[in-house]
Amino acid sequence: MIRQKVYKTSLASLHPSLVASGNTENKDDSPILIKYRFSKGYRHKTLDTTLTKARVAGEARALIRCLRAGVNVPGVRMVDAAEGVLGIEWIDGKSVRRLLPGGAEEEDEGVDETLDDIEDVDHLQEFDISVGEYYQMMGLIGTEIAKMHLVDIIHGDLTTSNMMMRRTASGKPDLVLIDFGLSYQSSLVEDKAVDLYVLERAFASTHPDSEPMFQSVLDAYQTQTGKEWNAIKKRLDDGECTSSVQR
Amino acid sequence: MDLFYFPHLAPDRATTHIALFRNVKNAAELRKRIIAAATTEGEAGDAAREEVNFAFIDARLITSRLHLQTAVYQSLLAEAQNGLRTRTVHSEVLWNLNPTNNITEAIRRYGVSDATTSLLVVRIDGGNIPVEEMQSRIQKVVEGELTPLSKLREITDWTTIKKYHKLASELSVKAAQGDLEKETAVIDNIVTIDQDQSLLRDAFQSIVDLNWKAISLSKLCVSTSNNLGTIVQ
User: What is the pLDDT of residue B224?
Assistant: First the structure.
């Protein structure tokens, strides 16, 4: 079910008079991503407004908390909770799903991907990760998730589609977590373990032979979390997360 | 002089003029003038208010063009939805820059003070007034050296910004320590929209509203958050 629409736009543009005078040093037209949670006709109107408002504010708050904690997430550019609009930094990169084997075949959500389909060459080359070095990327994933969990943010929808690889200004590959639409705040070991479990399932269902890759996600996660790891691991190994996924 | 242009907004709100001044000499006098304009009544008051109908912002506390732009944009949004927390769209810019909800604090910190030497002057309007005309109007009230907005980085006071936004102990800033360029980039990205507390308040208010409506709608006693959860689903 479609719950929100996504657009690429810019907050401001170059003023016509500046364009005419050739003064284009200010890049006011840098792109942002707009998430629009449109009004749902099947919901009572007041309920719809309050829910939308709370969700937009909640997503913005989670992003700000992550930014403060140094987790790589898109920066917030505008918040219009009343109308259900959230504007965030445009991440110029590729989803991890498309970079991993088996993930490129079907892409049924998100922005229009047709532009990217022109060349289906080895995307990993662009990020200096050769085919044999998936593990480096897995390490980045584990580290970012751990940093997020350390400030008690639960993503709620960790899949390889919700992670993007981009290049930083220095040329170093950078992993960015996106889509905090289902995120919430919790310090419970259970919730963190469920977050990881959801990702494990996502790996298993989208990418063949992903078990060793997921293990290196966990290794990096362990290094970053430190002493909290044991409790989370225990919970994850119990395999009882399955029941609580149906939240 | 510089311009922000929001082509999708109503024509009378699409353009914002920005002027950056260094070596401002009349800050104390300017502050008195703004206060006097706000308290004068009648036609003389209207004229006095029009003369200082700008947002005067301490330029040390602005990290980038984008930082100012988002604050202006959020103020325009609030105005369009009749949701201004302060009296004018210009004072709303100051409120949006301040990370807390306190209007007095926002004006004291981000507005013009007697010690201000670097000033950003912002005017939101329809762009009917030519840039030259706007510049001369601004220069009638501000005595200082007009500087291109691209020089803002030389003015920004990162230490004070870290203090106001409570960033010193944040992991993101700590991780970037020693690498000035990275640290400033991290701070810039955070402060661009750092309305944590106001967002918190909005969200909390929504939950209270929702809870109250749930009670009145179903005539059930719904007071715990657990019950609220089931209704939401």
Answer: 40
Contact B15 A15 (CB under 8 A): yes
Please give the ipTM for the structure prediction: 0.82
CA distance B59 to B119: 5
Q: Which residues of B179-198 are buried (b: 16+ CB within 10 A; e: fewer)?
A: eeebbbbbbbbbbbbbbbeb
Name the residue facing A77 among B7, B70, B127 (closest C-beta). Answer: B70
Q: Please choose, from the candidates A71, A82, A76, the residue with its C-alpha nearest in 3D space to the C-alpha of residue A32.
A: A76
Among chain B residues, CA nearest to A67? B190
CA distances from B154 to B61, B93, B122 (A): 12, 22, 19
pLDDT in tens, B30-70: 999 999 998 888 899 999 999 999 999 999 999 999 999 99
- B172/A70 Cβ within 8 A: yes
Measured CA to CA, the distance from residue A16 to residue A139 in angstroms comes to 46
Asked if A28 and B5 count as a contact pair (C-beta separation under 8 A), the reply is yes
CA distance A151 to B169: 13
Strands A94-95 and A173-177: unpaired
Cβ A91 vs Cβ A162: under 8 Å: no
Enumerate residue ranges in chain B where pLDDT < 50.
197, 200-201, 203-204, 209, 211-233
Task: Verify whether the Cβ–Cβ distance A61 to B172 is below 8 Å.
Answer: no
Residue with tokens 């311009």, as numbered in its chain: B3
- pLDDT band for A206, please (50, 70, 90 cuts): confident
Decide if pLDDT at A122 tops 70: no
**Mean pLDDT of the A225-230 span:** 90
Query: In this structure, what are the phi and psi dihedrals at residue A216, rounded to the nearest 5 degrees?
Result: -75, -25
Structure tokens belonging to residue B188: 């810039």
Chain A nearest-CA residue for B183: A70
Beta carbons of A160 and A175 less than 8 angstroms apart = no
The whole-angstrom separation of Cα A73 and Cα A105 is 26
Give the full edge-to-edge strand order of the sheet including A163-167.
A94-95, A163-167, A173-177
Positions of A marked catalytic:
157
User: Beta-carbon neighbour count of residue A226 at 10 Å?
Assistant: 10
Verdict on whether the full-model pTM lies above 0.90: no
B147 φ, ψ (degrees, to nearest 5): -130, 145
CA atoms within 13 A on the CB side of A128: 8
Over range A185-190, report the average pLDDT.
Answer: 93
Give the mean pLDDT of A67-91. Answer: 94
